[in-house]
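User: Run a structure prediction on this.
Assistant: Running it now.
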Amino acid sequence: MHKRLTIILLALVLSGCGGMQKNMQTPDPGNTADFSAPENNREKAGPPIDFGRELSLDEAIELALQRNPGIEVQRHQTDSARADWREARGKRLPHLSAAASASRYLDDQRLVPARSPGEAGAWGEDQYGADLVLELPLFTGGRLINRASAARLFAEAAMDRLGRTRKETVFNVTSTFYAILEQRKVIESLRFSHKAVSRQQEKIQDLIAVEKGVRVDLLRVRVRLSDIEQQIIAEENRLEALHRLLANLLGMETEQKHLPVQGNLSFENPGVSGDVLWQDIYAARQDYQALKNQAQAAEKSLAAARGEYFPRIDLRGTYGGRWAEGDTTVQAGASEEEDVGSIGLHMEMPLFAGGEIAARTAGARADQAALQARLRELELQIRLEVQNARDAVIADTKRVQTTRAAIEEAAEALDIEQTKYNLGKGTIVDVLDAQDALLRAQTNLARALAAYNTDLARLELARGTILYKE
C-alpha cells in the first residue's frame, strides 16, 4: 500500500510543478524597459484630476505615456504575443505529466500481461493505475522550430508596434497642445480687436452726442462688434473641444473646463536638411520594423506548414504502478501490486489529410506575399510622409516670416486710417477694414506658428525620431 501512496503523491506533486511551469519561463528577449512596467507600477486612469499648476508640454507627454488607453491596450497585446512565443518555445521541450486510471470490468482481468508462459498473476474486477509519462519531440520536419521562430518574430513585432503607438501618442499630444496655444492666441487677438472696436464705438457715440458724428458709422461699428463676438464664441467652443481631446489623450477625466497648460509657439527656424538616408529612417520607423518582423514570421509559418508533410518522431517513456482492489485472485508467487514501465519511439506520418496540409501551406504562402506587398507599400508611404512633412516645414517657415511682416504693415495702416478718421478725412469703413486686416494678420501668425511647430513634430514622427533628439 505504501508504494501506491508514494506513486499517487509523486503524481500530484509533479502535476503541481506543471502548473508552475508558466512562471518559471526565462525572460523575453530584447530590452522591454522602455515599453512596459510592472503591473503594480502602471498608473491607471482613476478619479477626475484637477491640476494645481500649469502643465507643460513635456509633462503632458509624460502623463500620456503613463495613462493613455491606446498605449495600455498595445502593452497587453505585447504581453499576449510574448506569452504565445513562450508557449511555442515550450512545445520543443520535454513534457512530463502524470496519468491515473480506474476501471471496473465485468469479468476478472489480469492485472498486468504475463511476462513468460505460465507466469503467476493477479486478477480482479476493479483495477487502478498511476503513471509518469515523459514525451520528447525528436523530429517534426521543422514545425516546432519554425513556429517558435515565428512566434518570437510576432512578439518582436508587437513590441515595435507598442513603440510606434507611443510615438504616435507623443505626436497627438504635441499637435493638440500646439492647437490649444494657437486657439488662445486667436482668441486673444479677437478680444484685442473687440476692445479696439469698442473704443471706436465710444468715440463715435461721443461725436454723435455733440452732433459731429454720423449714426450710420455707429451702426457699422456695432455690426462689426457683433461679428467679433460670434467669432469669439466659436473659437472658445473649439478651444474647449481641444481641451477635452487633450484630456482623453492623457487618459484622464477632469472637472476643469480648461486644462491649465502653458507654453509658447516658438520659431527657431533650424532649417531642414535635404539629404535623406532612407535606410536610417526605415530602421527608426518601428511600424516598418514591426511589419518586417511580421513578413519574416510569415516565412517561418510557411516553413512550418510545409513541415507537416514530414513524419513526426517522439520519444515516449512511462513508469508507474498497477493494482487491484476488492475481490481479487492472486496466484501463488504473484502480487496485487505491480510496477510497469516502457520507453520507445513513436512515429506519425501523414498519408492523406483531405488537402488540409496543402490548403494550410497555400494560405501561409499567400500571407507571406501579402506582407511583402504591404512592406513595399509602407516604404513608399514613409517616403511620402517624410517628403510632405519636410515641404510643410519649409512652407510654414515662409508663412511665419511673411505674416510677421504683415502684422507690422497692418498695424501701421490702422494707425493711418484712425488718424484720417479723427481728422475727418477718412471713413469708418476704412478704419474697420484696417482693423479686420490686422486681426487676420495676427490670426494668420498664430496659425502659422502652430503649423510650424506641429509640422516639425510630424517630420520627427515620419522619421521615427520623435521620442529623442537626432
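Confidence is low (pLDDT under 50) at residues 11-47.
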